[in-house]
Design brief:
Length: 311
């Protein structure tokens, strides 16, 4: 496969995964912002820090205006991390790679692009119709995932697409966990309701209630988000999938620095696979997550240099 084709497929799935994460986090934050109960610890600040480049003064200006926030995060072309800009990039990558994609996948990407760029969406966000709009966009991201899974052949295209998908997912989980935990003293036990913003953003609230029985919510939430291999949005789950697709790519292409690349990923993977919550707490949650993010960035850079011919 040409390096530019692999690059486009890799980034196509990264952008769609980023879109899904943005919409789920936005939906969670918007809904919980309507709840004035005692367990609300999340705010628009998390959305701003991950999906915006606003400075502190601009954040304060936006914070109490949900209409402006939604416009900025969803359709503001001046925000490089807005959903509109992300989906525009996804379609641009897909457009030149239609020979590697099924007709159904291309049509879904194209539909999502036209949906977010439609003139009607601006008006819909100003008519108390925000939640249905967000839910509709989110369902289209989930529909894309199903279409890819049911129509794409399991070959090189599939491997590059899914490596990108799970790399993006692991990065987003790290960002969300870090943003929700920063400033919290984890030695002080929190009620599970305190963590529902994080769990809903990861689509893991029901999973948590069904799989964790103890009252140690801080410990359990950290375990679920980072170390639970059965939770689809955990860091470990994503790394396990990345390992499989990386092995397929290396076997099919036999890069010059095969050993170096696989060892680099192996070090990242083992730091999570053989970790436990006590080790993370002893290291310091933010230090552990920051190092993990840095190592994943380094792996992503090395992978891109090897397969995409970046200069």
């Amino acid at each position: 496969m040409l390096s530019r084709s692999a690059d486009a497929l890799f980034w196509l799935n990264r952008y769609i995964e980023r879109s899904e994460g943005l919409l789920r986090t936005l939906h969670t934050t918007y809904v919980l912002s309507l709840d004035k109960g005692p367990h609300i610890n999340n705010s628009w600040k998390i959305i701003f820090e991950i999906f915006s480049t606003l400075n502190e003064e601009e954040k304060k200006e936006y914070e109490n205006n949900s209409e402006k926030i939604l416009e900025h995060i969803l359709i503001d072309s001046s925000n490089v991390n807005s959903l509109r800009m992300i989906l525009n990039k996804a379609r641009e990558n897909a457009r030149g790679m239609q020979d590697h994609l099924t007709k159904e996948v291309w049509e879904q990407v194209n539909y999502m692009y036209h949906r977010i760029n439609a003139k009607t969406i601006d008006a819909q966000l100003k008519t108390n119709n925000e939640i249905p709009v967000i839910e509709s966009l989110l369902k289209n991201c989930l529909l894309y995932t199903g279409i890819v899974d049911s129509t794409m052949s399991r070959g090189e295209s599939w491997d590059f697409m899914n490596l990108g998908k799970y790399l993006e997912r692991s990065m987003l989980t790290i960002d969300l966990v870090e943003k929700y935990i920063v400033g919290n003293d984890l030695s002080e036990e929190k009620d599970i309701l305190y963590w529902r913003g994080l769990l809903f953003s990861l689509s893991g609230y029901e999973f948590h209630l069904k799989n964790y029985r103890s009252n140690e919510a801080n410990y359990n939430v950290l375990h679920q988000a980072v170390l639970n291999s059965n939770f689809p949005h955990s860091v470990l789950y994503s790394l396990e999938r990345m390992k499989k697709y990386l092995e397929n790519i290396v076997a099919a292409n036999d890069p010059t620095d095969q050993t170096g690349l696989t060892r680099q990923f192996g070090r990242v993977y083992s730091s999570v696979q053989f970790g436990d919550v006590d080790m993370i707490l002893n290291t310091g949650v933010t230090d552990y997550l920051s190092q993990l993010r840095y190592n994943l960035f380094q792996f992503s850079w090395s992978f891109s240099q090897t397969y995409f011919s970046y200069s």
